[in-house]
Design brief:
The complex is a heterodimer of chains A (about 120) and B (about 120). Chain A is mainly β and about 120 residues long. Chain A contains no helices and 12 strands. With about 120 residues, chain B is mainly β. In chain B, about 0% of the residues lie in helices and about 45% in strands. Chain B contains no helices and 10 strands. In chain B, the strands form 2 sheets. In chain B, strands 2, 4, 5, 8, 9 and 10 form a 6-stranded mixed β-sheet that branches. In chain B, a hairpin with a 3-residue loop joins β4 and β5 (about 40-50). The radius of gyration of chain B is 14 Å and the shape is globular. Chain B starts with a strand and ends with a strand. The chains are: A mainly beta (about 120), B mainly beta (about 120).
């Protein structure tokens, strides 16, 4: 069974608009972490935001926020005020357990920001 | 400070040859991970080192793949008798393992391996 599902292969957004990238996950471990990474065409994997399974508040980092709905097992990334430089592949990933474990990645979503 | 570094950035080899890929983690990070990114398989975990503990090798696809980490720092991923299906970008990551909490993995730029 897929542990991380990203249902949107590609998305377009107008510059300065907000966009939501979907991620659902599957785990029976009560302790886990959810991560979003950005991979521009240059290939580097850039950490964006983290949400722990016990966190009460949705994570935010600048223009990035994570819409964490634990009961639905979803962890959608919201990018506000999109910029041309946001065009990239975005990966949702999960680590099962408190820490020190591999990441399982989704297939990714390609985001294109239009001017 | 310096991020995760990997070398070489690109490697082209002939089928059947052995290759070594190197990863230098962020200073002070005790955990080191290798992943592979290929078109057909996406991002896959290969192996994980944590301090002096036995590595988690559960992601290695065959016994042609091996890795070591010397002195708790630099790691080398070795692929013996390379096959064309080994062509991929090999990514290394490291994390601090500060205990419960974020334990974010930071990635290097990757090594693009092409097997002809």
């Amino acid at each position: 069974a897929q542990k991380i599902t990203q249902t949107q292969p590609g998305m377009f957004v107008q510059e300065k608009e907000a966009v939501t990238l979907d991620c659902t996950y599957d785990t029976s471990d009560p302790s886990y972490g959810l991560f979003w990474y950005k991979q521009p065409s240059s290939g580097e994997m850039i950490f964006l935001i983290y949400q722990g399974s016990y966190d009460q508040q949705n994570a935010t980092e600048g223009r990035y926020s994570l819409n964490f709905q634990k009961a639905r097992k979803s962890a959608n990334l919201v990018i506000s005020a999109s910029q041309l430089g946001d065009s990239a592949m975005y990966f949702c990933a999960m680590r099962e357990g408190e820490y020190g474990n591999k990441l399982v990645f989704g297939a990714g979503t390609i985001l294109r920001v239009k001017s | 400070g310096a991020g995760v570094s990997q070398s070489p950035s690109n490697k082209v080899t002939e089928k059947g040859k052995d290759v070594e890929l190197r990863c230098d983690p962020i200073s002070g990070h005790t955990a080191l991970y290798w992943y592979r990114q290929s078109l057909g398989q996406g991002l896959e975990f290969l192996i994980y080192f944590q301090g002096n503990s036995a590595p988690d090798k559960s992601g290695l696809p065959s016994d042609r793949f091996s890795a070591e980490r010397t002195g708790g720092s630099v790691s080398t991923l070795t692929i013996q008798r390379t096959q064309q299906e080994d062509s991929a970008v090999y990514l290394c990551a490291s994390s601090f393992l500060a205990g419960a909490g974020t334990d974010t993995q930071y990635f290097g730029p990757g090594t693009r391996l092409t097997v002809l």
